[in-house]
Design a protein that fits this description.
The chain is an alpha/beta fold. It has helices at about 15-30, 75-80, 90-110, 125-130, 145, 150-160, 185-200, 225-230, 250-255, 265-270, 275-280; strands at about 40, 50-55, 60-65, 115-120, 170-175, 205, 240, 260-265. The chain is built from 11 helices and 8 strands. The strands form 2 sheets. The chain has a 5-stranded parallel sheet. A 3-stranded antiparallel sheet has the order 1-2-3, with helices on one face. It binds flavin mononucleotide (FMN). Flavin mononucleotide binds near residues 171, 243 and 266.
Length: about 300
């Protein structure tokens, strides 16, 4: 089975063995509203295999050795960019689709409540969407219809295998931030969002950029990506917005004024892992405090 490492410390659902550990060890934590921190840590490259540890907090709950299917050693990948790449053939594309389906099934088995497909930030599906990176000449490249084909096929396949009614989100980069060359635009995102809704997607999580190092990032002040979400929402699908939302009042304002249906925070959860509890308290609501921590709040 191929192993894709996007960075040390990243989690992955590509390995059944890891999911069984998460499932048996962590689902109880999910249900008790405590954060689950199952982390795969590549401990270094040793010959043909990578030892990994699955951790829950500081506790090691499983150790495995995985075989990477990569052209060179991990060290080569880290230090010799850009890599030489080859376009996916038809079989490769089918494998990718199956990998998404398998990953979704694993996530459902583990007990997650929402599936979000990642089609943003320069990851593979974004690379198919964007004319900056997609130079294919087959039915997956060229026209808008062709570049969006893979995302839509995966959405349809995943929708088929997850429980009816389970929320399915797709994260997109609304724009490639390339105003002066052919690229993925907010208009493209809006059109795609409408098509995704008819395939059973419940919400589009609207981020931006990260397809190419030469992108022209605009000002990244507070709530800088909200206007993209507002535009994508014109397709009719519920939208999430993300980017420099840092306060309970700010998130509340976005929702209250109908600028998005969901306010998504990244870094603020790193700065304050109990942001959700604090935000609920500030806004006069009961926070999701784990029962055993009530005395702390
Ligand atoms: C340490 C870190 C890791 C991240 N990893 C991912 C990722 O794997 N996938 C993703 O879509 N975004 C990732 N992001 C981006 C966040 O999801 C989010 O879009 C971004 O940080 C902007 O939101 P914020 O201003 O609330 O942090 C990461 C951000 C940080 C700080």
């Amino acid at each position: 089975m191929p192993v894709f490492a996007i960075g040390l410390g990243d989690t992955t659902f590509q390995q059944d063995v890891l999911v069984s550990s998460v499932s048996s060890n962590a689902t109880g934590y999910l249900n008790s509203t405590q954060p689950v921190t199952a982390t795969i840590q590549a401990k270094g490259y040793q010959g043909e295999s990578i030892p990994v540890e699955l951790r829950k907090g500081d506790e090691i709950i499983d150790t495995q050795t995985i075989q990477p299917e990569i052209p060179n050693s991990l060290q080569d990948i880290t230090f010799q960019l850009p890599l030489e790449t080859e376009g996916l053939d038809a079989e490769g594309i089918e494998d990718i689709k199956q990998n998404f389906v398998d990953a979704a099934i694993r996530a459902v088995d583990v007990g997650f409540d929402i599936i979000e497909l990642h089609a943003a930030h320069g990851y593979l599906l974004h690379e198919f969407l964007s004319p900056v990176t997609n130079t294919r000449e087959d039915e997956y490249g060229g026209s808008f219809e062709n570049r969006t084909r893979l995302v839509k096929e995966i959405v349809a396949d995943v929708r088929d295998v997850i429980p009816e009614g389970m929320p399915l989100f797709v994260r997109v980069s609304a724009t490639d931030w390339f105003p002066d060359r052919e690229s993925w635009t907010v208009e493209d995102s809006t059109e795609l969002a409408g098509e995704l809704q008819s395939l059973g997607v419940d919400l589009v999580d609207v981020s931006a950029g990260a397809i190419h190092p030469d992108q022209q990032v605009p000002s990244t002040g507070p709530h800088y990506q909200v206007p993209y979400a507002e535009q994508v929402a014109e397709s009719g699908i519920p939208v999430g917005t993300v980017g420099a939302i840092t306060t309970p009042e700010g998130a509340d304002e976005i929702i209250r004024n109908g600028r998005a249906d969901l306010a998504i925070l990244g870094r603020e959860h790193l700065r304050d892992p109990y942001f959700a509890v604090h935000a609920a308290q500030e806004l006069g609501r009961d926070g999701p405090v784990p029962r055993q921590y009530h005395r702390a709040f």
